[in-house]
Amino acid sequence: MTARTGFTNLMTELKKTRDELRLQMHLAGMEARATWEKLEPKVDELERKVNAAGDAATHELEAAFDTLGKALARLRDDIVPPPSGPRL
Fold it and tell me: Is 83 among the domain residues?
């Protein structure tokens, strides 16, 4: 897999998480909204960097994906209730 393909896959996952969060924001509290307003523009910014980057920027972009992905996942975990199901 090339770096560009990997970044494309990571970008797809980040955008999917962002879109899921966008749907949940109407239920979120003020603190979650403030976090969202900081994170949402970073997805588009990172996508622009991926599209413009050459091989030299690979490590920087990998770190940015990791950081932003973790921040979005933390916000999702804070505002989206876990799925209900049978407990064993």
Answer: no
